[in-house]
Each structure stands twice: as structure tokens, then as C-alpha cells.
Amino acid sequence: MTGPSSPRPRDRAVTDEASGALRPFSPRPEGGPGSVSLVFAWELHERLLWISNLRWLAVVGLAAVSLLGPSVGMDATRPSLMVVAALVAAYNLVFVYALKIRFGPEEDYRNLRTLAILQMVTDLAALLVTVHFTGGCTSPVLPFVVFHMAIGTIMIETGIMYVLAFATCFVAAGLFASEHLGVLDRYASVIGGESTLAGCGLSTAMLVGLVFGIVYLTDSVTSRFKARNIELHRTTGELRRSLDEREELERRKSHYMRISAHQLRSPLGTIKTSLQVLLDGYLDPGSDEGLRLLSGTARRVDSLLDIVNDLLELAKMREGRVKAPWARNVSINQILADIFDAADPIAREADVELVPHFIHEGAAVLDWAVPPDLVYAFENVIHNAIKYSKPEGGTVTVALGIDRTHAMVVVADEGIGISVDLQDDVFLEFVRAPNAKHIEAEGTGLGLSIVREAVQMHGGKVSLESAEGVGTKVTMVFPLHHVPPEIGRA
Ligand code: ATP
Ligand code: MG
User: Fold this and answer.
1) pLDDT digits (tens, 9 = 90+) for 193-231
2) Nearest atom (ligand 1) to Cα of 310
3) How distant, in Å, are the alpha carbons of 138, 230, 383 from that of 341?
4) Residue 253: how many CB atoms within 10 A of its CB?
5) Ligand with the closest atom to the CA of 469
6) Is 451 in the pocket of ligand 1 (CB under 6 A)?
7) pTM of the model
């Protein structure tokens, strides 16, 4: 038999919490510390199983009293007790089935609590029926009602237990009154003795006092433990979460280092080979071929610099947010207008018509923003749109939408598009689609990952819709009143 507090799937409870779903808890938010009367789902499951096991003892006890009563001097056997024993056995089978087959320890807390309430109600009903057949207010079974109340208060909310306490006392008083008024048969106590009206009144009063007293006392004693229990698990969950975060960070860092090393190695290798050719005297640096080799090498050095700059930008965003130059009341309209002026010649060269759909929009002003990062984000997306409109060119529109809480920047082009399977991946570092590499050899594949970082640090989201050969639409949504955590904390 498993005791009510034997440790079992604690890890699972914590893991569940770590995933963000507070499934094992069902906190009662408005209560003070004294009102914490809840346990974890798995704990409740164990306790319910424990009670089911105890219930078999009750079945055996009832059957034994029914059969063996006379031989140990008890007044009378009660065939009815056998019926009660059979009923208790039958509903216990249903509960055991529910607990072992239908509801595991990971079951939703609310379902288990409903089951617990159902068990309490059926047990109390069975107890009161037993009390009736074993002598009414003089029945030796009466104290078990109090025992049940204590168990119930450990398992479920005290409020519910007070309701059950009231219902139990009400039904018990009604039962005793009916017995004395002759509405129901009155059975002599199984341990002998007759009940008088006054004695019965006293028993009822004592029952009421004990039932409510035990609920109150059990709640006062256990609520502190429950609060600590929940606190402990919450802390363990938080520790585990931060451990997982650190692991994930480490993993990403080493992944990132590997890719960076790989990205830098191939152009460096080519540069070294070219220089070796010149150093070994295979080519005259002053000759046409030598000059071509040198200018190719210079281009590769440029692209290496691009990669290094992008990597630095990304690292700065990931690590240096605390020092980011947050500014107040930053106008997106203004930033877009500046970028437009600078991007126009690039667009013209690529045969692209840049259409500003934000001129007549209202002012999109972010409470807090880091202007250089916003510029970087918009520039990257607009440059991508121009770059990947090649070779035919087309139209690139930049639109701005505003409502009371958000600003939305949408950059749409009619270029090469991105195949469906790569549409999520292009936000990862160094990912470039084959069609992009085909029309534009230069590119690090870091731009969109920086865009995403920049948008997210402003509390926003970036998404992309695209169809290969049709065009791409990148949408960036910013909350107007986002307060960055480092500002909020200051
Ligand atoms: P860089 O780091 O120099 O910006 P890049 O432009 O290739 O290089 P990202 O800006 O990160 O890198 O874009 C990643 C990939 O997403 C691109 O290589 C391209 O395959 C795809 N892509 C991004 N924008 C567009 C677009 N507007 N149309 C088509 N493909 C796009
Ligand atoms: Mg780019």
C-alpha cells in the first residue's frame, strides 16, 4: 500500500511546470497563505489510490461485523451491512478502475479533484448508511465520519470540505431525528445500549463540533506544508528551467562557433591559395591575370569582412542589450524615409521601383527603440527585396500600418521568392536558398537572423510569406508601448 506522502513522479511534476503548463497546481489565487489547500496532481492521485486500498479494509470490516457479530457478543447481525459492504466494494472497483486505467498521475488536476470529491461524497453516504444500520447516534462507526473529514481536508480545498461538513451534519441530524420520530427503523447499537433523545442530541452536537473542528484544524496544520511544498516545487522548476536555458545557450554557442569557423574557412583557404600562387612566382602580380587574381582576392576579403561585421552585430545584439542605446519616442516614419533616400539609387540600378506606402500614414512612434537596430532591420529587409528582385526587377513596396497599440511595416517584392520548405529556416544564421545563391553569389545569410533579433528586442515579431517565382512579403509588427526589460528594471 502506498502511503499518502511517498515520493514518486516528482520529476514529472517539475518538468510539467518547466514547460510552462502549471498543470500540477491549481492555485487559489485570492487566498492568503492559510488558504493554500492544494496538492500536486500526482500526489492527489497517490492519496486517492491509498484511500481506495483502505476502502477494501472497510469492506472486509463491514462483512466481518455482518457475519461474525453474534459470535463476539454483538447484539445482532445486520444482513443490510452485507449489502452496504457489497455496494462499497462495487463503487471502489469503479474508483480503482478510474485511477489505475483512466486517470494516471499526470491527469489534469481538476479531473482528479472531481474524482476526490466524488469519493468523499460516496464514502460519507456509505458511512451514514452504515451508521444507521449500526445504531444511529450510538453507532461506533460515527467517529469515522470525523476521520474522513480530516483526509478530505488534506486532499481538497477547505471550502469544499466545509460544504461537505455542513451537508454531512445536516443529513446525520435528519437521520437521527427520523429514527427517533419513527420515520426510519431504529436499530440497536451493535455494541449494545439504547439511544435516548437527549443522548442523541448530545451526540449530534458533538458530531457537528468535531466535524467542523477537524476540518479547521487539519487545514491550519496542513496549509503551511502545502504552501512550502508548492514553493519548493516551484523553485526546483525554476532552477531546472534556468539550467536548461544555460545548456541551450551553450549548445547554440558551440553550434554557432562551428558554423562561423566553417564559413570563414573556405574564403580564407581560397585567399591563401591565390596568395601562394603569386608568392611562388607562378603569376606576375602586375600582369592582367595577376591583377584579376588580386582583385578576386580583395573581393573575398570584403566578403569576409561582411561576415565578421554581421557576426559582431549579431553578438552585440545577443549580449549587449543592457548597453543598447534605447531612445524615447522613435518615429518609424522618419527611419523609413531616411532608408528610402539611401536605397533609391540601389533600387534604380537593379531596375526596381521603390514604392513608399507609408508617406500618408499617421505617425508610428515607438515609446522605446534602438534606432540603429531598427535601421539595420528595415535596411536588411528592403535590400533583400531589391537584391532578390533580380534579374527582372519589379516593384518593391514598403507599407506602414498603425493602430492604437501596434505599428506594422510590410515590405513586399515581386522577386524570386522562397520555397515553402525554407521559409522558416531563412531566419537562421547562414541559411541561403539555392535560388538566391544562384542569382547573387555574395551574401552571408546572416541578415534575416539579425532582423529577427532586432525586431524581437523591440518586443515585436517578424514573419514572412512567399511563393517561389511570385514574390515575398516580410511583415514586422511592433508594439508601440513596449518597455524593454532593462529599462523596466532600472
Ligand atoms: P546577407 O547576410 O548579406 O543579407 P542574405 O541576403 O543571403 O545575405 P538573409 O538576408 O539572411 O541573407 O536572407 C536569407 C535568405 O533568405 C536569402 O539568402 C534568400 O535565400 C532568402 N530571402 C530573404 N529575403 C528574400 C526575398 N525578399 N526574396 C527572396 N528570397 C529572400
Ligand atoms: Mg540579406
Assistant:
1) 666 788 888 889 999 999 999 999 998 888 777 777 778
2) 2
3) 96, 58, 13
4) 11
5) 1
6) no
7) 0.50
